[in-house]
Amino acid sequence: TAIILNDSELLQTGLYLDGQWHQQGVRYSVYNPADASVVADVVRAGRDECQLAIDSAEQALTTWKTTTATERSGVLKRWAQLMHEHVDDLARLMTLEQGKPLAEAKGEVAYAAGFLDWFAEEAKRVYGDVIPTHKADARILTLKEPIGVVAAITPWNFPLAMITRKVGPALAAGCTVVVKPSEETPLSANALAVLGERAGVPAGVVSVVSGDAAGIGAALMSSTVVRKLSFTGSTATGQLLMRQAADTVKKLSLELGGNAPFIVFDDADIDAAVEGAMASKFRNTGQTCVCVNRFLIQDSVYEAFTHKLAQRVAALTVADGFTSGAELGPLINDRALDKVELHVADAREKGGRVLCGGERHSLGGTFYQPTVIADAQAGMMLAGDETFGPVAACFRFEDEIQAMALANDTNYGLAAYFYARDIGRVWRVAEGLEAGIVGINEGLISTPVAPFGGVKASGLGREGSKYGIDEYLEIKYLLMGGL
Ligand code: ADP
Q1: Is 214 in the pocket of ligand 1 (CB under 6 A)?
Q2: Which residues contact 191 (CB under 8 A, 6 or more apart)?
Q3: In sequence order, which ranges of 246-365 are alpha helices (DSSP H)?
Q4: Structure pTM?
Q5: 235 CB less than 6 Å from ligand 1?
Q6: Mean pLDDT of all residues in the chain?
Q7: CA-to-CA distance for 123 and 136, rounded, in angstroms?
């Protein structure tokens, strides 16, 4: 595939180490999920290359951490600005390697730049304290210091935003970062690195290594220099990394899987609930960790809601992400498609009613028809496990107590959504849901200004917002005695 960009330098297939692009080494292919064609062959990093990246991050830390907040803020602001200026190229690369519709990719570029902008501001607001003393001849102060070298391991579903959400606060705090993007989407990460360099990110402050995930992971996790891991991805990989982090006692931020409930109560505005459902379920072809996994609908509005939802879903435009008007692109790979097929087959077998979709799409490849399944039951695979695809499973409940029990009947606790208008119910349910994020009469909850993160097996820590930078800071307390 010929890749036509306005700025051809944004296409980088090398390895970005210590401010240099390295072209030598074994390469692996990055595929376009829409047609399985090869987009590019990129250098495959492993344990050794990652060690070089860690060394350069350690070296760069000595000067980067002593820069003023204003300097770091300026770099992050310019970086965000460059992302906006190159939105078309960044979106194009993203759609090529990830498959999401171009309009969504452009939306992600803006969202991703938003984290750099936000943390450019937060960099300037890292305050310490003076604490009232416990001894007449002593004074107590706190300093907030950068934790050191950070490992950022990110997934393919948001190839830019998951990186800026970590690199933004890390750089703002004065940390240096080794980024390990998903091997499915290294081109977006590399383009981001090009713009970072142009914005003034010094050599070694950000390196990008993708390829042998286990080897890179081993280098990062065994390093005593890497003091912090921020990971977004599957629960299984997160658990592995958490175990590996024990040996060097790294600070951890983990954004893992979810199993988001979306509750529609009988007092909900049903049309608004259907709108919210569409946005939350089908964005990125159902491949986000905050996508609804279980629709829980009250008996009296069950038929009305599922009918309207199925009508809307059946009208969605599935197409290559470059086709104008595309609303759903392909799934990322065959493994993702297999999981969706397995969940739908299992639901059918256990009495699920397919209201629309339920099959692979005629476009072939990893395209799947957007699907609504009614009469979903607790024993189905899609009740317990994230489908991560365009399948809306609708369960039924009788009353609020049952709805809450169903909603919380999962190990996960990232996002939850509900639609209701009764103010007492709104508070009861908002407080009763075991989740880090609750969308109330709203299906889109991601923004750089609010804290994103989960409870239970969905993870540790919060990203974005005024809290996000704390994950990259250590508090040092000074006790000054003998005064
Ligand atoms: P998914 O199944 O959605 O790809 P993963 O958790 O496997 O989710 O991927 C998220 C990120 O974790 C990717 O960058 C991936 O390469 C990385 N990853 C996977 N396995 C490991 C590992 N053993 N060590 C370090 N990183 C890993």
Answers
A1: yes
A2: 10, 11, 12, 86, 89, 90, 93
A3: 270-282, 299-314, 334-349
A4: 0.98
A5: no
A6: 98
A7: 34
Nearest CA to ligand 1 atom 4: 155
- Is 180's C-beta closer than 6 angstroms to any atom of ligand 1? yes
State the Cα–Cα distance between residues 130 and 142, nearest whole angstrom: 7
User: Degrees (nearest 5) of the Cα angle 161, 179, 99?
Assistant: 45
What tens digit of pLDDT does each residue of 189-222 get?
Answer: 999 999 999 999 999 999 999 999 999 999 999 9
- pLDDT (tens digit, 9 = 90+) per residue, 27-40? 999 999 999 999 99
Question: Tens digit of pLDDT for each residue in 380-393?
Answer: 999 999 999 999 99
Report DSSP letters for 345-413, one per residue. Answer: HHHHHTT-EEEE--SB-TT-TT-B--EEEES--TTSHHHHS---SSEEEEEEESSHHHHHHHHH-SS--
Task: Choose one of 237, 252, 287, 291 to mutate for the ligand 1 pocket test, by most ligand atoms within 8 angstroms of C-beta.
Answer: 237
- pLDDT of 3 reads 84
* Among candidate residues 1, 3, 50, the one with its CA nearest the CA of residue 22: 50
Are 113 and 203 contacting, i.e. CB atoms less than 8 angstroms apart? no
pLDDT at 2 over 80: no
Instruction: For residue 38, give Cα distances in angstroms to 1, 34, 96, 146, 211.
Output: 7, 11, 10, 40, 16
Cα–Cα distance measured from residue 30 to residue 269, given in angstroms and rounded to the nearest whole number: 44
pLDDT above 80 for 238:
yes
Give which of 397, 442, 396 is closest to 420, Cα–Cα. 442
Which residue's structure tokens are 């493994």?
A: 335
Residue 401 CA to residue 256 CA, distance in Å, equals 27
Residues that are catalytic: 255
Instruction: Please report the pLDDT score of residue 1 as a whole number.
Output: 53
For residue 334, the model assigns a pLDDT of: 97
